[in-house]
């Protein structure tokens, strides 16, 4: 049996939530960030978020496209939401690697979480690791929390989605709510510069037939292998702490119901947990107080989560033409602005920091239909490869 290694803090999962938590712990002690895969691999998401998230994180390099409008198609009508805060699509690998590159003193390891020994020692790959502070950022399976005794994940409270890339341009970020072949779900098209990410989801977690629905939506007979990726995402806010562990992102059910927006909450609550954990490492707080403070931060948003969850459940019950007028009403100027501000506040991106105590707020250009730095970077990489191939 391998010997036990001791850290001040261990974060399991190095996607949005884990990277955000680790950013707050950097330099505060011996910190380990472990994931079963290298950083930037294993994207599940359509990578659409508020532009403000990228601005706060000084992550303009990852930007693909800005979307000042969101269109919702339902019951044969288009409803246009003029967004008070533009949405943006971004490149997953670029953002992940950028956030990871800022973690100067955090030790990173590719090591799958395998379990917890009775005394709390974590099994990470073939390593045995003990830490005062543990953060579970492992996504909807919340493997660490489960190992520490959290109840099994309730599959009835998960949605599921699949997605592919379509290599044409596009201008509008669009949803098709409860389309005829998917009355329990939604299709989407997220333009990202040189391609559009198109997907289908079931709010009720019905994975059967989703791939076929997406193929019909894409007007293709079938997809080549590996052309489609996807997964599950929670639609119910869970417990932000389990035993002595902080639980963040999808692991704590922090993905927003109805919209399925999980990146922003994972980053915001990931940082919030990281800040409280850092206070423990700095010796300015004890663990119980830190856990209670993080829990209180999340609980302040519970009403917002509950409202979205209820609306999601209600919106699937009546015929879609009954839902349509309400959605049109929500798109009307003053109401739309009020709703958007409330929605934004559930996981306020203004709280995001680049490193503890520093906010960036680099205003990114309104690129609308044109392309962002991440797309230009991809194009340059292709040009370089072609030059190499031709020996130029
Ligand atoms: C098809 C689809 C499209 C989506 N589109 C969007 C979108 O456009 N915008 C948006 O805001 N949200 C979107 N979401 C939701 C969003 O992807 C999630 O809410 C978000 O990824 C949550 O981030 P996270 O860091 O909590 O978890 P994840 O991104 O799931 O990361 C979990 C990490 O834990 C690691 N891990 C898992 N198990 C282990 C283990 N045993 N040991 C070690 N590491 C482990 C994984 O490798 C991964 O790196 C989408 C979801 C799906 C399924």
Could you please describe the fold and organization of this structure?
The relative contact order is 0.18. The protein has one domain (4-351): FAD/NAD(P)-binding domain (3-Layer(bba) Sandwich). The longest helix is centred in the last third of the chain and has 20 residues, at 263-282. The strands form two sheets. Strands 1, 2, 6, 7, 8, 9, 15 and 16 form an eight-stranded mixed sheet that branches. An eight-stranded mixed sheet has the order 3-5-4-11-12-13-10-14. The chain is an alpha/beta fold and 392 residues long. The chain contains eleven helices and 16 strands. Helix 6 runs antiparallel to helix 7 (287-299). Residues 12-18, 34-37, 42, 44-49, 112-113, 137-139, 141, 143, 161, 163, 199, 230-231, 233, 249-251, 255, 260-264, 266 line the site of flavin-adenine dinucleotide.
Topology:
Elements lengths: L3 E9 L3 H10 L5 E5 L12 E3 H6 L6 E12 L2 E14 L1 H10 L5 E4 L2 E4 L5 E3 L2 E10 L6 H5 L10 E9 L6 E5 L7 E7 L4 E7 L7 H9 L10 E6 L6 E2 L2 E3 L15 H20 L4 H13 L2 H14 L4 H11 L2 H14 L26 H18 L2
Parallel strand pairs: 1-2, 1-9, 2-6, 4-11, 9-16
Antiparallel strand pairs: 3-5, 4-5, 7-8, 8-9, 10-13, 10-14, 11-12, 12-13, 15-16
Bound molecules: flavin-adenine dinucleotide (FAD).
How far is it from the N-terminal to the C-terminal residue, by CA?
55 Å
At CATH level 3, the topology is FAD/NAD(P)-binding domain
Tally of discrete structural domains: 1
Overall outline: globular
The CATH class assignment is: Alpha Beta
How many DSSP H or I helices? 11
Class inferred from helices and paired strands: alpha/beta
* Helix-strand sequence: EHEEHEEHEEEEHEEEEHEEEHHHHHH
If classified by CATH, what would the architecture be?
A: 3-Layer(bba) Sandwich
Q: Would you identify the regions where 5 or more consecutive residues have pLDDT less than 50?
A: none
Mean pLDDT: 93
Structure summary, number of beta strands? 16
CATH superfamily: FAD/NAD(P)-binding domain
Largest sheet: 8 strands, mixed
Helix content: 25-40%
- Note the beta-strand portion: 25-35%
The hetero compounds bound to this protein are: flavin-adenine dinucleotide
Radius of gyration: 21 Å
């Amino acid at each position: 049996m391998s010997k036990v290694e001791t850290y001040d803090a261990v974060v399991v999962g190095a996607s949005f939530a884990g990277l955000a938590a680790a950013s707050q712990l950097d330099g505060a002690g011996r910190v380990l960030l472990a994931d079963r895969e290298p950083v930037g691999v294993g994207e599940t998401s359509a990578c659409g978020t508020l532009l403000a998230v990228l601005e706060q994180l000084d992550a303009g390099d990852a930007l693909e496209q800005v979307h000042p409008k969101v269109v919702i198609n339902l019951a044969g009508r288009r409803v246009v939401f003029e967004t008070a805060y533009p949405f943006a699509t971004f490149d997953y690998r670029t953002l992940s690697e950028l956030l990871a590159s800022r973690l100067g003193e955090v030790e990173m390891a590719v090591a799958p979480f395998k379990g917890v020994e009775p005394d709390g020692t974590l099994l990470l790959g073939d390593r045995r690791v003990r830490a005062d502070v543990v953060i579970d950022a492992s996504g909807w399976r919340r493997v660490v929390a489960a190992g520490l005794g959290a109840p099994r994940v309730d599959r009835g409270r998960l949605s599921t989605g699949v997605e592919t890339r379509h290599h044409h341009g596009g201008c509008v970020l669009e949803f098709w709510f409860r389309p005829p072949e998917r009355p329990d779900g939604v299709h989407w098209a997220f333009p990202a510069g040189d391609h559009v990410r198109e997907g289908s989801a079931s709010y009720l977690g019905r994975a059967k037939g989703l791939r076929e629905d997406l193929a019909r939506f894409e007007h293709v007979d079938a997809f080549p292998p590996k052309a489609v990726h996807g997964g599950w995402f929670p639609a119910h806010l869970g417990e932000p702490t389990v035993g002595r562990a902080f639980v963040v992102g999808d692991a704590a059910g922090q993905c927003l119901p109805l919209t399925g927006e999980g990146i922003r909450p994972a980053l915001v609550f990931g940082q919030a947990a990281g800040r409280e954990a850092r206070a423990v490492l700095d010796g300015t707080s004890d663990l119980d107080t830190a856990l209670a403070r993080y829990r209180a931060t999340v609980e302040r948003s519970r009403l917002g989560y509950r409202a979205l969850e209820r609306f999601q459940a209600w919106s699937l019950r009546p015929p879609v033409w009954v839902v349509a007028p309400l959605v049109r009403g929500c798109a009307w100027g003053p109401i739309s602005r009020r709703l958007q501000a409330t929605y934004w506040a559930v996981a306020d991106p203004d709280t995001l920091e680049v490193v503890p105590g520093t906010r960036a707020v680099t205003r990114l250009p309104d690129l609308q239909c044109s392309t962002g730095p991440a797309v230009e970077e991809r194009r340059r990489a292709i040009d370089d490869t072609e030059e190499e191939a031709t020996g130029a």
